[in-house]
Amino acid sequence: MKKSSLVFLSLSMIIASAVLSMNVANYRAIPSAHGQTNAAMFATLVASNNSGNVIINNAIASSAITNSSSSSSTTPTATSNTTEGLQIKKGINYFDSASGYLVYPSIANNNNNNNAAANTANSSKKLPAVIMIHENRGLNDNIKSMANTLAREGYAVLAVDLFKGQVAQTSQQAQQLAGSARSNSALTISNLQAAVKYVSSLPFVDSSKIASIGWCFGGGQSLQLALHSEQHPLVATILYYGTPLVTDKQELSKIKWPVLGIFGDKDQAIPLSNIQQFKTALDSISIPNEIHIYKGLGHAFANPSGANYAPNETVDAWQKTLAFLKKYTG
User: Fold this and answer.
1) What pTM did the predictor assign?
2) Which pLDDT band, with edges at 50, 70 and 90, does 84 fall under?
């Protein structure tokens, strides 16, 4: 009896050890989300387009972000390819040394013509366009992923480059690049105006339906573009926790179209009082606006790689963004 018990005990220990080893192996096989680039996490988090629950990955990117293009100021050669129903053109030289990323839905005609731009231009309805402005890390893969996502909703999207091809790899470098762009505001505004002019010239774009969107630094620049678009009025301006936030009524009165603002009430970069002043100023000068302030959320809450990431609110904010764009560009 004792011998049987010992055998049974030994077998139990062997089985338990094997199960434990399998569990450990399975645990180690699961990659850490923080080890992925923002672009990779973006692909993981995007929900079905049919349900409309598309999650956008934006704002301040982590130093883990990689970029397939050079970080030097050299302008890359423009290339194009069609991927997953999208026509993509990299290295679009829309302004001096700035090379943007253009993406829009591919359209094939009955003759199997591969010229998507010509096909779209010949269609009965031209595409609305969106100028997409990067955060303080520059035009990286994360921004390009967001441009692709928005293009799938039926927009021609030009992701601009305000850093002359440079992509920040550290927070310090990001601050320096953003600071330089802000201090050279005339050049930065000219860059954004050139982007609007460029997309307006595209044969498949409805030049009367151009909007802008940006996050953090890019959100602030989206607002700046709105304040300097007398020559080519936009139809909508979107900013996610944009800095700096302009609250002066006289300045804001230059805007003649609707504004969507997405904020968190715990954003240390933008005091709640400033957000409220922004809303009050827009209301007082009769600028149509939708200002959404999410309770308990800090800066860059729509960034999956950040400590403030709030997935449910990110989905809700993106749905509001799509609805807003459809309302004013549809």
Assistant:
1) 0.75
2) confident
Whether residue 254 sits in one domain with residue 220: yes
Say which CATH number the domain at 99 has. Answer: 3.40.50.1820
Contacts 24+ apart (CB under 8 A), 84-91: 84/148, 85/152, 86/148, 86/151, 86/152, 87/116, 87/117, 88/148
Domain that holds residue 20: 1-30
pLDDT digits (tens, 9 = 90+) for 304-330: 778 999 999 999 999 999 999 999 998
Q: Is residue 310 located within the same domain as residue 274? A: yes
CB-based contact 165:244 (threshold 8 Å): no
